[in-house]
């Protein structure tokens, strides 16, 4: 991770939200591809040593991504993302919920709103996660912050390798 680039996580329990702002030293098109292409997304979405594995990804409004985070011992934690808004190179909104391997969702999930912008070769990604339940948010919060921070670090490494080509 670059020392001069912004990385901030703000938790607002009253609003049941987590706001993550992260900058990457990469062009917007490369960062957008990392969030929208299953083969690339699977390379960084899970914190190491876990791996992400997309079973389905229909990147369109009304489409879904059904994926697993796979631990080194092979156990899987499934989740569904249902895309509700896509503005190419600007915004992605989806509803995220954990599920079982048969795609049966948990009772509550979270709404994600991602915005992308670039200035002078630095791309800023703003991720607002609104949880349907404060209890769910409090239960997942610490693991989420650590895990998603590690995943974004993996994305940073991936973007650096791709930019160096």
Topology:
Elements lengths: L6 E6 L4 E8 L3 H9 L1 H7 L6 E7 L6 E7 L5 E12 L3 E9 L10 E10 L2 E10 L2 H30 L2
Antiparallel strand pairs: 1-2, 2-8, 3-4, 4-5, 5-6, 6-7, 7-8
InterPro entries: ASHA1/2-like_C, START-like_dom_sf
Family: Belongs to the AHA1 family.
Pfam families: AHSA1
Task: Write up this protein.
Residues 26-159 form the Activator of Hsp90 ATPase homologue 1/2-like C-terminal domain. It holds the Pfam family AHSA1. Belongs to the AHA1 family. It comes from Ahniella affigens. This is ATPase. The protein is α+β, with helices and mostly antiparallel strands. It has one domain: START domain (Alpha-D-Glucose-1,6-Bisphosphate, Chain A, domain 4, 2-Layer Sandwich). It contains three helices and eight strands, in the order E-E-H-H-E-E-E-E-E-E-H. It has an eight-stranded antiparallel beta sheet with strand order 1-2-8-7-6-5-4-3. Helix 1 (28-36) crosses helix 2. The mean pLDDT is 94.
Overview features:
globular, Alpha-D-Glucose-1,6-Bisphosphate, Chain A, domain 4, 165 residues, 3 helices, eight-stranded antiparallel β-sheet, ASHA1/2-like_C, ATPase, alpha+beta, 28% helix, 42% strand, single chain, START-like_dom_sf
